[in-house]
UniProtKB/TrEMBL annotation, chain B:
Keyword Ribonucleoprotein included in the entry's annotation: no
Keywords noted in UniProt: Amino-acid transport, Cell membrane, Membrane, Signal, Transmembrane, Transmembrane helix, Transport
Entry annotated with the keyword Cytoplasm: no
Annotated signal peptide: 1-20
Coiled coil location: none
Gene: urtB
InterPro entries linked: ABC_transp_permease (IPR001851), ABC_UrtB_bac (IPR017779), BCAA_transport_permease (IPR052157)
Organism annotation: Belnapia arida
Mode of membrane association: Multi-pass membrane protein
Name of the featured protein: Urea ABC transporter permease subunit UrtB
UniProt-listed Pfam families: BPD_transp_2
Family to which the UniProt record says this protein belongs: Belongs to the binding-protein-dependent transport system permease family. LivHM subfamily.
């Protein structure tokens, strides 16, 4: 009960941030632009953490490639944002984005068609990660690849995607990715209006995702997932189709991650293949581990606290950050198997 | 009769230099005359092929040849060019050059180098003639070939002769030259033949036959070189994956810090090299020395990691994975703090540098060849350690059945620590090999860790034979795909292929059978 109150309080505080940002700069309650944009970014991270927690904490699928789904969602919206630049690019080409003009493209590749429509881009931000997760998950779960093997396969997946997106002839901007976005849905980006709109959209998505995930977790499906996590063979012998259950939750998780990525990119204003790097995915996993997996709320707590620590440490002592992150991995797995949430629930008892 | 001919030959052999000497001294005075005389004399000296012309022409080219008022020529250090005796250099002035002389010098020096005492220089001269070729070179080359003791240099001269004969008017010699160029099978020979094809309509069929034979041998050579590159990449993967095969395959521990142990090994190599730098007789042997050093450093790190951390997480592989990833980060950042983020250079010792030419003109870089040898040696060592030592026996026993091994008096905890240290030590040795072909930087290991995991998964967990086959297959497939798809896409293809492959054989190429397979 206390937990729920804390959660509601936290959401209210978050919801007030953009409003406080509009206060005059000399007001005591004024919140800087930096805080708003950074918190908006963290919210999308928290959604990614939720997605990972659903797969790992409930179904025992430790994906080290969820960053790939996040980045794919980001690329989908990035393509839309690139199309919206229109003739305002450096080269002033009416249709082609700058990097395509630079690379000598004559016309838009077929897979860029449709991305000038916002609904289509959002749809792709969900469908593409979902499809990829569906194919990979089907192949992996069908041949009963579990545990660390699955982790390594998913890590290889995001690694392969990173290498692929680094290529210029993929048609996704290569090394530089997409940037210099101008506007979204008629709102010029980088204005307070756009910032708060994106912020509230992220917050809404976070609440929606939290509601969806906890609904799945509490349903009968969720209980079967927990059973699969704890004793996969036994569940299979009881007559449940383990492959389908795992596939469902993996695809759902990938779709949520894709949406999070779609909200992340307009807020940070850039997407490049670095988002696919295996390190990003595993960092997202540690958010969940720090917060406490299998609790959903723990994932949120972890995402916010680890990223707050990162933002603080990388400005104060950049060299220390990797030590701290590495130490977090060690400390959490050895001493805090249930994460920060575990501390609170122990205190409640 | 025999004695007579021998004596006659000896007489001729003695007379030959004497006659040359006459011509040599006769050609010299022109160098003290006007520009026209100098150029004529230079050409004469070049055509003579007398080795003593070489220092004279070199001095002339460098502007260090001096002439005295009475027409004698002095080399640097005041020796008489004709007699080789010390001479009085008072009042001498430098012989001056103009462009015509310089041009003559270039040709003459190129020809004279054919008689240089240095084999490498003779080879270079043959190469130069091969490129510049003219009909006048034919007799000089024929004379040089008759004298040449070094087989390698001789082969190059024969090629140069063929090139020169192609531009000479003799039809029969041309046919002969075309056949020889065809047998040489090099890109240069092909270019030469294609050039000659237009100029010699009567020889087109012979030239086409030769070109086709060159194309054939070139494609065989390309295939062999791709295979070699693939094998050398494969043995790098093998080295990186062998340690994983022990820790992951045998112990079931996912060690994401494995790449960092490789990196530690590479830095150990760097440290040993720096330590040996001050001791001249030791410096060339720093690399062999760093093999045990790297093994010990990485093994110690592995033992500490196992006893201190991993031990508490047995039976929880996902947590082990995350924890070791964190350890890897700390190691990386630690090394970055100590050694700096920039690349450190580990130089190859002289005996590992250079390129080896295998028969058939297949070029093989020595250090990659050594890596293949090293990889195989380490593999054999690992197999021997597991098969024939007490430690190997205990290790196999613990893998098969931990409890029964313990009741038989095996200290399983100690075996765990030793096994992990062993696997980590192998990673360290992989670092020694990698320091030869890659930059030694804190994130050296990250580039190889995913590939090594793929090797172990592909080859079959817990099987050293699978690791060998997996590593070499992945290496060769990567290199074979590269020309068609580019390095990056080749890697992507391989990753996708492995994922599809696991569909058919989820337990890898060399799956364990029997009871061990069930766990």
């Amino acid at each position: 009960m206390t937990l729920r109150l804390v959660l509601v309080g936290a959401v209210l505080v978050l919801a007030m941030l953009p409003a406080l940002n509009r206060l005059p700069a000399d007001s005591a309650l004024h919140v800087s632009d930096f805080i708003v944009s950074v918190t908006g970014k963290w919210i999308t991270y928290a959604i990614l953490a939720l997605a990972i927690d659903l797969a790992w904490g409930y179904a025992g699928i430790l994906s080290l490639g969820h960053g790939a789904f996040f980045a794919l969602g980001g690329y989908a919206i990035g393509m839309h944002l690139m199309r919206l630049i229109g003739p305002r690019g450096v080269y002033g080409h009416p249709v082609l984005p700058d990097f395509m003009v630079f690379l000598g493209y004559q016309e838009l590749p077929w897979y860029w068609l449709g991305f000038d429509h916002f609904p289509f881009a959002i749809l792709m931000a969900v469908v593409v990660p979902g499809l990829l997760a569906g194919v990979v998950g089907y192949l992996a779960f069908r041949s009963r690849i579990t545990g660390v093997y699955l982790s390594i396969i998913t890590q290889a997946l995001t690694y392969a995607l990173m290498l692929a997106f680094f290529r210029n002839d993929m048609g996704f901007g290569g090394n530089n990715g997409f940037t210099d976005f101008k506007e979204l849905l008629g709102m010029p980006l980088n204005t307070p209006t756009a910032r708060s709109a994106l912020f509230y959209a992220s917050l809404l998505l976070l609440l929606g995702a939290l509601w969806l995930c906890s609904w799945v977790a509490r349903s009968k499906l969720g209980r079967v997932l927990v059973a699969i996590r704890d004793a996969e063979s036994r569940v299979r012998f009881l007559g449940y189709d383990v492959t389908q259950h795992k596939l469902f939750v993996f695809v759902l998780s990938a779709m949520i991650a894709g949406l999070a990525g779609a909200l992340y990119v307009p807020q940070v204003g850039i997407i490049n293949p670095g988002e696919f790097s295996p390190g990003n995915s595993i960092e997202a996993v540690i958010w969940v581990a720090v917060g406490g997996r299998g609790t959903l709320v723990g994932a949120l707590l972890g995402a916010f606290s680890v990223n707050a620590l990162k933002t603080w440490l990388t400005t104060v002592a950049p060299d220390l950050w990797l030590f701290a992150l590495g130490g977090l991995f060690v400390a959490v797995t050895l001493f805090l198997p249930r994460g920060l949430i575990g501390l609170f629930s122990k205190a409640q008892k | 009769m025999k004695n007579l001919s021998l004596a006659l030959g000896l007489l001729l052999w003695l007379a030959l230099p004497a006659r040359a000497q006459d011509a040599f001294t006769a050609a010299l005075p022109g160098l003290a005359g006007g520009f026209g005389d100098i150029a004529a004399s230079v050409e004469q000296l070049g055509a003579l092929g007398d080795p003593r012309g070489l220092p004279v022409l070199r001095a002339l080219q460098a502007g260090q040849l001096q002439k005295t008022a009475d027409g004698r020529l002095l080399l640097p250090g005041n020796t008489d060019a004709a007699t080789g005796q010390p001479a009085d250099g008072a009042g001498a002035e430098a012989v001056r050059l103009n462009n015509r002389v310089r041009q003559a010098l270039r040709g003459a020096l190129g020809r004279l180098q054919l008689v240089s005492p240095d084999a490498a220089e003779r080879g270079a001269a043959a190469e130069a003639i091969f490129r510049s070729r003219s009909a006048e070179d034919v007799p000089i080359l024929q004379a040089a070939i008759a004298r040449e003791p070094d087989a390698g240099v001789k082969a190059r001269m024969v090629l140069a002769l063929a090139a020169a004969q192609l531009v000479a008017p003799n039809e029969e010699a041309k046919r002969d030259a075309i056949a020889r160029l065809g047998a040489a099978g090099t890109v240069e020979a092909r270019a030469l033949l294609i050039e000659a094809r237009a100029a010699n309509p009567s020889l087109v069929t012979a030239i086409d036959v030769s070109i086709a034979s060159i194309e054939r041998s070139l494609s065989i050579r390309r295939a062999a070189e791709t295979l070699f590159q693939g094998l050398s990449l494969g043995s790098v993967l093998l080295l990186a994956a062998l340690g994983l095969a022990v820790t992951f395959g045998v112990m079931g521990v996912i060690n994401m810090a494995h790449g960092e142990f490789v990196m530690l090994g590479a830095y150990a190599t760097f440290v040993v090299q720096e330590a040996c730098r001050g001791i001249p007789w030791l410096a060339p042997w720093s690399l062999p020395l760093s093999v045990p050093a790297a093994f010990l450093v990485a093994a110690a790190a592995g033992a500490v990691l196992e006893r201190g951390l991993i031990r508490h997480l047995y039976g929880r592989p996902l947590e082990t994975l995350l924890m070791t990833f964190g350890v890897g980060m700390i190691l990386q950042q630690g090394v970055r703090t100590i050694f700096g983020a920039q690349n450190r250079e580990v130089t190859s010792p002289a005996w590992m540098q250079g390129t080896l030419m295998l028969p058939g003109g297949i070029a093989v870089t020595q250090n990659r060849l050594w890596i293949i040898v090293f990889g195989i040696a380490v593999l054999l060592l690992v197999i021997a350690a597991i098969r024939f030592t007490r430690f190997g026996l205990e290790m196999r026993a613990v893998v098969q059945n931990r409890r029964i091994a313990a009741t038989m008096g095996i200290r399983t905890g100690r075996v765990d620590a030793l096994t992990f240290a062993f696997g980590s030590g192998i990673a360290g040795m992989a670092g020694v090999a990698l320091s030869q072909i890659d930059n030694v930087s804190p994130n050296l290991g990250t580039g190889y860790i995913i590939d090594s995991f793929m090797v172990v998964v592909f080859g079959g967990v817990g099987s050293l034979a699978g690791t060998l086959v997996g590593a070499l297959t992945l290496g060769v497939v990567n290199k074979v795909l590269e020309p068609y798809a580019g390095a990056v896409l080749a890697k992507v293809f391989v990753l996708v292929a492995i994922m599809l492959f696991i569909q058919r054989r989820p337990r890898g190429l060399f799956a364990l059978k029997g009871r061990a397979a069930e766990s």
